Amino acid sequence: QASVESFTAQQRALAATIRRLMAELQGEIPWTGQQSDPDAALQDTLFRERLTQYAARLGTTDETIQRGEANFRTAAQDAAAFGNQLLVARELEGIRGKLFTAQIGSKLLFLEAQGARLRAEREYQAAQSRLAELRHEIDARRAERRAFIGTWRTDLMQEIARHRAELTKVEDAL
């Protein structure tokens, strides 16, 4: 008699756990167990806590991605501005070079124009590198997000399989 009651209690607990895991896996929100059943009430609490953890992790990752995208947009604007500065610096260097060659302009002004062009090129290259770096960081965060979701789902499926095997053993014992 006591053994049957024990197995029946295990059966209820495992069934409630499996229902919660399936609801979690299938994204059934909100899932509510039968509150009169202590096992279902416990699983309902677990479901809500796990849902909160899941949402918090995704929310943090999404915020990081959004911040990265905002930084990317700013860096793209900077790169465009540096590109324009580089065009102006090249044009100025060309003009100063022609004047110097024609012996109308000074060598000092030509060298200053060359220096300005080199600085503009360096700033433009740095901005392009920053864009590539930010794109890589955004892609990495997106990959982490996908990996987290995949791992979460895989863990759920493994838990479901384990609990189903346990449930089958309990039902066979009954």
Task: Explain the overall architecture.
With 174 residues, the chain is mainly alpha-helical. Helices cover 90% and strands 0% of the residues. The protein has three helices and no strands. It has helices spanning 2-26, 38-101, 107-173. α1 runs parallel beside α2, α1 packs antiparallel against α3 and α2 (38-101) packs antiparallel against α3 (107-173). The longest helix has 67 residues, at 107-173. The radius of gyration is 32 Å and the shape is rod-shaped. It starts with a helix and ends with a helix. The mean pLDDT is 92.
- DSSP summary, beta strand count: 0
Multimerization state: single chain
Order of secondary-structure elements:
HHH
Question: What is the overall number of helices?
Answer: 3
Tell me the β content.
Answer: under 5%
Low-confidence stretches: none
Which word captures the global form?
A: rod-shaped
Give the helix/strand class. Answer: mainly alpha
Portion of residues within helices: over 70%
Give the termini distance in whole angstroms: 11 Å
| C-alpha-based Rg, rounded | 32 Å
Please describe the biggest sheet, giving its number of strands, its sense, and whether it closes into a barrel. Answer: none
Overall residue-averaged pLDDT value? 92
